[in-house]
Amino acid sequence: MVTFSDIADYRDFLKEFYDRRKVEMPFYSYRMMGDKLGLDSSYLYRVLQKKQHLPAHALPAAKEILALAGREAEYFDLLYSAAVSKDKTKREELMAKALSLRDVERHSLQAAELKLLENWWIPAVRAYLELNGGVVNVKQIARDICPPITEDQALEAIETLKSVGLVKKLASGKLALTEAHLTVGGPEKAKAVRNFQRQVLSLASDALENVPVNERNISTLTLSVDQSCFEDLGDMLREFRRLVQKRVDGAKNPDRVMQLSMAFYPVARKGGASENTIIKGEGAGDKK
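^ that's the sequence the OP posted. Answer follows.
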């Protein structure tokens, strides 16, 4: 299926949907899709060929058959408004808003690059290199990572980052980052991801005792939810993560490397849920 990164015209969503349905159901037709949208088949054909625009009254039905909700629905609406706008300035503003909803670009890790996930400090060293302008001082790096690592570990992290191309050596001898965000795909990589997440969650636990309150922000919620609420909160967490990455991209003068861990998991099943939300921390609603 097409993604945000593939689309700059709302009609591509519709064209992709039609082509996919045609493969799944060879008898699927413009008339069948048009009936769902309240359009005749010839008009729908012109829309898919980008010779016409959807009428405004067909937008809700279009988003329904495309199963667009939340950020995707907003993206679709913005692309539509930009496409039909006759004002160039307004069109550019709408497109800029739409593009801001796209995911940050990520570097997909190949099998050989899974070494990055073997130890939590390897991504931390990579982020640290941005703080110090790419200066390679192994002794300093080992001392500044929290908790501290050995010089051998710092050196191994640098060599790993160089070998997979996530940092590159400049003529000055300094290192520069080549990608801002990482992601891992494929079921065979799940074990490596879980191991990495286990490490960083352990760091969060250690931070409760070893990091001053004014240098961390840790809070927890115990919630009673139904399935619909559970799914909505999952969407909200994904959107929050995207916004965090966008904000980090805009940091002008970073002076620290932070680890953000988000966990959302069951602690009780139906039959033992409470009616109220319990907030755990140093006082109701406090940040720790």
